[in-house]
Design brief:
This protein is of the alpha/beta class. It contains nine helices and eleven strands. The protein is about 45% helix and about 20% strand. α1 (about 30-50) packs across α7 (about 195-205) and α2 runs antiparallel to α5 (about 145-155). The longest helix is centred in the middle third of the chain and has 24 residues, at about 85-110.
C-alpha cells in the first residue's frame, strides 16, 4: 500500500484512492483560531478532573456507544482514505476494545503509593497530577486508532487532549468529532484538528506535553522545534522508522519527579500524568 498524498496547497486537496478524483478539501485553522480552541480545552480540563476517575470512565464508555451510533459514517471515510475495509473495521473495534480495557484497569494503574523512606522519621505519599493539555500528532497508516491509542490513557488520567492526525487521511475527523460531541464532559476536553505540518507545529507550541508518532525525518523537525518559554514539557517520541521511543529528559510518557518502580511500570502503560512526592514527618517517640 502506498502512502496517501495530499497537495502542498494550504487547503490540502485530497484525491480519493478508489475513484482517483479530487473529492476532499480541508482548510486548516489559523493560529488565533487554534489558540482559541486549545484554550477551551485547557478550561474544560478542570471540570474533567473534578468528575473523578469514575466519571471519566463513564464518559469514555459513552464514547464507545457514540462510535457505534456513528459506525458507518466513521468507517466509510477510513476506507476511502486507506483503501482498506477489514483493517478499517479493526481500527474501530480496536478503539472500543482498548478503551474498555483501559477503563477496567485505570484504577489499579493510577493507584497512589505510600510508604516509608530511608529516614524513619519520614514517610512518603505519591500524588499524580495530570498535564492539562496533551498534544498528539499521529500518522496516516492507521488514522483512527493511532490518533486515539495514547489519548485514551491521557483522558482517563484527567488530561485534556488535542489531536492532529495526518493531513493525508483526514476524512474520518468530521464524523468522529460528531461522536465526541454527543458525550457530556468529554466534548469539552477532546478535540481533533485537520491540518498539515504547520498546524502540527502550532499544536506543539500550545500543549503541555506531546506524543508524536511518525517518521524519523518528521520527528527530528518536531523535536528541534523550540519549546515555549517556561515550558517543562517532556515530549514522547515514537519514531516508526526506528521502532523505538526517544524522549527529552524523562521516561515515556514521563512523570514530573522520580517515582517508585511500580509507578514507572504504570508510566510505561501510557498514563500521561506527572507525579510529585510529598514527605510528611512523623513522630518517632
Amino acid at each position: 500500500m502506498t502512502r496517501p498524498r495530499s497537495s502542498h496547497d494550504p487547503q490540502h486537496r485530497l484525491r480519493n484512492p478508489r475513484s482517483g478524483k479530487m473529492d476532499y478539501q480541508i482548510t486548516p485553522l489559523d493560529p488565533p483560531a487554534l489558540t482559541t480552541r486549545t484554550e477551551a480545552l485547557h478550561a474544560g480540563q478542570a471540570k474533567w478532573l473534578e468528575i473523578g476517575l469514575d466519571g471519566r470512565i463513564r464518559a469514555m464508555e459513552a464514547l464507545c456507544d457514540a462510535v457505534d451510533r456513528h459506525y458507518q459514517p466513521i468507517l466509510d471515510p477510513l476506507c476511502a482514505d486507506t483503501g482498506r475495509h477489514e483493517w478499517s473495521v479493526n481500527e474501530i473495534e480496536g478503539l472500543k476494545g482498548i478503551t474498555r480495557m483501559r477503563c477496567a484497569t485505570a484504577a489499579e494503574a493510577m493507584a497512589e503509593a505510600t510508604g516509608n523512606s530511608s529516614d524513619p522519621a519520614l514517610r512518603f505519599q505519591q500524588q499524580y497530577v495530570p498535564y492539562q493539555l496533551v498534544g498528539i500528532i499521529s500518522p496516516w497508516n492507521y488514522p483512527l486508532i493511532l490518533a486515539m491509542i495514547d489519548a485514551i490513557c491521557a483522558l482517563l488520567a484527567g488530561s485534556a487532549v488535542a489531536i492532529k492526525p495526518s493531513e493525508g487521511t483526514p476524512r474520518f475527523i468530521a464524523p468522529f468529532r460528531k461522536a465526541i460531541a454527543e458525550v457530556e464532559h468529554l466534548r469539552d476536553v477532546l478535540d481533533v484538528f485537520e491540518g498539515g505540518a504547520e498546524t502540527g507545529g502550532w499544536l506543539v507550541d500550545l500543549t503541555d506535553t506531546l506524543v508524536f508518532t511518525g517518521s524519523a525525518p518528521t520527528g527530528r523537525k518536531v523535536r528541534c522545534r523550540p519549546a515555549p518559554p517556561a515550558s517543562s514539557r517532556p515530549p514522547s517520541w515514537n519514531w516508526a522508522a526506528a521502532t523505538r521511543w526517544l524522549c527529552w529528559t524523562a521516561p515515556i510518557p514521563t512523570w514530573r519527579r522520580k517515582s517508585s518502580p511500580a509507578a514507572r511500570r504504570k508510566t510505561r502503560a501510557g498514563f500521561a500524568a506527572r507525579s510529585s512526592e510529598a514527605t510528611t514527618a512523623s513522630s518517632t517517640r
